[in-house]
Specification:
The chain is α+β, with helices and mostly antiparallel strands and about 210 residues long. The protein contains five helices and eleven strands, in the order αααββββββαββββαβ.
Length: about 210
């Protein structure tokens, strides 16, 4: 699986290119943002997503339409904004992930953790924190209880230094460690700015209805 520090850097570049509107012609030619070699679009999505109508929701201003899908080898039910673009994904057992880009200048990804779901919760939290810090990440907030549709979750605020042409950039993310009955995942939201206030309303449903099986 691609190192998450590298992936966060690619995402940060994508967000700078994307802005807050729809993708421009220039953005679609930028291979950092639209890498057509990975499975994207309707055909690619079929390999990594299955429809899950119980989590569909019609648009309600100011929020968009949501589409229910099943991802990570039928292990996760997700209600996602219809305008998300599938950027990359893998179904490799133990290392499955799915990543999306939003036109509202943030990314959303779910990574499968190589954990045994019956292990002690405190040990899982510590292993996640150790893994994050071992890659140079700075955990600025941790172990905040979070409610999801199915599963047990804790929220983290994380900062990472990302190499750039002129000087390193700071990548900020909100990350959730979530345990279900048979798997453990990390949900990662990489965003612009100092906090999630501008996109929180759109993301509330995504997190609140997340089902980790």
């Amino acid at each position: 699986m691609v190192d998450r520090r590298v992936r966060a850097g690619l995402v940060l570049g994508a967000l700078c290119a994307a802005g807050c509107g729809g993708p421009s012609e220039g953005a679609t030619k930028n291979r950092t943002f639209y890498d057509w070699t990975v499975a994207t679009g309707e055909q690619g999505a079929k390999e990594f997503e299955e429809r899950y109508p119980p989590l569909d929701l019609a648009p309600q201003e100011p929020n968009p339409e949501y589409v229910g899908v099943t991802v990570l080898r039928r292990g996760i039910h997700l209600s996602k904004p219809k305008n998300w673009l599938l950027r990359d994904a893998s179904n490799q057992p133990g290392q499955a992930y799915v990543g999306y880009i939003s036109p509202n200048a943030y990314s959303f990804a779910i990574y499968e953790r190589p954990e045994y779901a019956a292990d002690a919760w405190r040990d899982m939290l510590q292993r996640y924190e150790d893994d994050a810090q071992s890659t140079g990440a700075k955990v600025t907030g941790k172990r905040v209880p979070v409610a999801v549709g199915i599963g047990q979750g804790r929220a983290y605020s994380v900062e990472r230094s990302v190499e750039a042409a002129k000087k390193p950039l700071t990548s900020r993310s909100r990350e959730y460690l979530v345990r279900g009955q048979s798997r453990v995942v990390v949900v990662q939201i990489v965003y612009e700015g100092d906090d999630l206030s501008q996109i929180n309303p759109e993301l509330l449903r995504v997190v609140d209805t997340l089902e980790v099986l």
